[in-house]
Amino acid sequence: MKYFKILCILFIYFTTSKNTQAQQVQNLSIQNSKNEIRCYTVEVINEFRKQHSHAETDAQFESVMSKKILARKAHRVLAANYTIPVIFHIINNEEAIGTTPNLNAAAINQQLLQLNKDFANLSNSQYEVSINTGIRFVLAQKKPGGSILGEPGIDRINRNMPGWTDYSVSGWTTTYIDATVKPAFSWNSNN
Q1: Residue 94: φ, ψ to 5°
Q2: Can you count the helices (H) and strands (E) in the chain?
Q3: CB–CB of 137/116 below 8 Å?
Q4: How far is residue 20 CA from its own chain's centroid?
Q5: Which of 32, 62, 57 lies closest to 45, judged by CA?
Q6: Which of 32, 48, 103, 155 could disulfide-link 107, Cβ–Cβ 3.0 to 4.6 Å?
Q7: DSSP string computed for 40-87
Q8: Residue 186, Cβ neighbours under 10 Å: how many?
Q9: What is the b/e burial string over 101-125, where b = at least 16 CB atoms within 10 angstroms of the residue's CB?
Q10: Which contiguous run of DSSP H or E holds residue 167?
């Protein structure tokens, strides 16, 4: 019976003792509203840095990791599973090519390059889920009827030819674009 009492006392002592907690808390400010202790990593690192002034900072760690990520991305093989020809319909008011809104081919090529970078996840996206989609866009070479485009991927439309209103004076509403402009120059994607 004497041993039973000793075992009970020891059991109560060990189950109620603060020394049996998995994490000793010196600073109670890390406890949440439910008095639960969450991951203590940040506090341990900060304490380590106080004791070791030469320890790596978060910024230094992020710099090293960024370089490693970039190196890894540079060695990735880009998958180009789908190639999609695109056409840029440039509506103008007889402005010279290269003046707004009659963009030149270099501006179009730059935009297409950026689009391909984005779809290949080469634009340093801040989102970890970003991936290479395997989709690549190229400038269309032919019109739907099969004739060769004067400028690859560019269809220049003088708004005066179809008799559209002057957008530089009155602007175009979404309704006007959807009802008048798009139906006149939308290309059949099956051709």
Answers
A1: 65, 25
A2: 7, 4
A3: yes
A4: 46
A5: 57
A6: 103
A7: -HHHHHHHHHHH-TTSPPHHHHHHHHHHHHHHHHHTPPPP--EEEEE-
A8: 10
A9: ebbebeebeeebeeebeebbbbeee
A10: helix 167-170
CA angle in degrees (0–180, nearest 5) for 108-175-107: 5
Which pair of structure tokens corresponds to residue 42?
Answer: 């940040």
- What is the tens place of the pLDDT at every residue in 26-54? 444 445 555 555 566 777 788 888 888 88
- Residue 143 · residue 149 · CB < 8 Å: yes
Residue type, 172: W
pTM: 0.53
Beta-ladder partners of 84:
137
